[in-house]
Amino acid sequence: MQEYQISKMKDFSNHSIDQIRILEHLCKTSDRSSLRVGIESLKEINGDEAFLFQIDNQLIGFLSWYTSDGIQANINGMIHPDFRRQGIFHGLLKRAASDMQIHGIQTCRFRIPSNSESGIDCILHLGASFATSEFSMVFNRAQTVVSSHSSLVVRLEEDQDLEFMVKCSSQAFGDSEPWTRNYFTRTREPERITYIALDSMIPVGMIRVNYIDTNTAVIHDFCVLPSCQGRGYGREILSGVVKILLDQKCFQIRLGVVTQNRNALYLYQSIGFEVTAESHYYVISVDMIC
Predict the structure, then answer these.
(1) Among the CATH numbers 3.40.630.30, 3.30.2290.10, 1.10.20.10, 2.40.50.580, which is that of 4-134+280-288?
(2) Which pLDDT does position 135 carry in this prediction?
């Protein structure tokens, strides 16, 4: 008789990570999808929360989550192709949701590859609603980065920049200042760097970099004050930071862009970023899971 077990991941050895990587490759190959479950974020300290479903010590299912604001959990997951439609993902999700409630999480946000029919069917079956779509992009290192705004300076964040960051981000993205301030406080980590862009010593924009490892960097929270948009600052800021990352020998530079934001998409493409995948995001209340 087969024995199954749902457990919280506590072993972050190379062997354990390799088992997840093997399952990810199997699912990706079977589904012919662009699945990525955030393996690089699995670590003992300051890593994502993760749960494993095992049958006779074989990894069958995986689910991980993290929160940037203490309100919404961002979730990745996968189930072995031979064990789907058996309620395994729902079981993992319920186990994780019980922890989420303790931490005050109110909603779950799932990232599903747009070319994963099984993943989309699973999430819709749970009752989740479509929220948005996003392109994943990677910088083509064969491109040459050119900048021209001689008066623009990009420097590291300083303590006095927080209020500007809150103002710039909340105005650009439409979030409230209290939410934005909480978000920046919660995501202040050693591996996450913020750059401030100044023109004639006046701050006009910001951009953040999350160093996944020594070779990989993810650009995010990139914005320019609405009153300063349309002046070419965005291109200069992004080009400047890409050049910094290339000088640091980052071999892979990634970012994401909402599919409807065509202006940003064209800007990133003109600098040298290429679309590598598309993901759909779905949301559901934690109360609907538990």
Answers:
(1) 3.40.630.30
(2) 98
Residues 25-46 have a mean pLDDT of 93
Q: How much is the mean pLDDT over the chain?
A: 94
Domain extent listing, the chain: 4-134+280-288, 141-271
- pLDDT at residue 1 greater than cutoff 60: no
Q: What is the distance between the alpha carbons of residues 37 and 254, in angstroms, rounded to a whole number?
A: 15
Please tell me the total number of residues recorded for the chain in this structure. 290
- Per-residue pLDDT band at 149 (split at 50, 70, 90): low
Topology alike, domains 4-134+280-288 and 141-271? yes
pLDDT exceeds cutoff 90 at 28? yes
pLDDT at 57: 87
Pairing mode, if any, of strands 216-224 and 252-258?
Answer: parallel
Please name which of 27, 47, 49 lies closest in space to residue 36, comparing C-alpha atoms.
27
Average pLDDT score over residue span 43-71: 95
Residue 62: φ, ψ to 5°:
-145, 140
Q: Which two tokens stand for residue 216?
A: 């990989």
d(CA 52, CA 77): 10
Distance, in Å, from the CA atom of 87 to the CA atom of 4, rounded to the nearest integer, reads 13
CA angle 254, 256, 261 (to 5 degrees): 140
Place of tokens 């970099």: 209
Question: CA 12: distance to chain centroid?
Answer: 20
Q: What is the spatial distance between Cα 77 and Cα 27, in angstroms, rounded to a whole number?
A: 11
Give the class (CATH, top level) of 141-271.
Answer: alpha beta
Question: Given strand 4-8, what is the order of strands in its sheet?
Answer: 4-8, 49-55, 58-67, 72-79, 107-113, 273-285, 129-139, 252-258, 216-224, 202-211, 192-199, 152-156
